[in-house]
Design brief:
Helix content: 40-55%
Number of helices: 3
Number of strands: 0
Order of helices and strands: HHH
Distance between the termini: 27 Å
């Protein structure tokens, strides 16, 4: 299934065919927590943990984009009750990164 709402989320054919080594900055606390998880066997390495977290976030963003596209094609947005239910189930507070109420 393609992402019509945001084609930038669909990489071109052949993209990502091999691993690359981007630089990612984590806080000391985050890195220490990940290293502890690796030490107790929750992940095979720091790289694996970060790659899995990125894959999960990309899938969530792709799914949200598809959902937004669906609502746009139907011509209406989810109700406030639907959004409140989703926020509760997802464990998010409904605020954007600046602390403002998300719409």
């Amino acid at each position: 299934m393609t992402d019509r709402a945001n084609s930038s989320l669909n990489p071109p054919a052949g993209a990502g065919a091999g691993p690359s080594r981007p630089s990612v900055t984590l806080s000391g606390s985050q890195l220490e927590q990940i290293r502890r998880l690796v030490a107790v066997g929750r992940a095979s390495s720091v790289d694996e943990y970060v790659a899995a977290a990125v894959a999960e976030r990309l899938e969530r963003d792709r799914s949200l984009s598809e959902l937004q596209d669906l609502f746009e094609r139907k011509g209406h947005a989810p109700s406030a009750e639907h959004l409140a239910w989703a926020r509760e189930k997802l464990g998010v507070d409904g605020k954007d990164k600046d602390g403002e109420a998300a719409t």
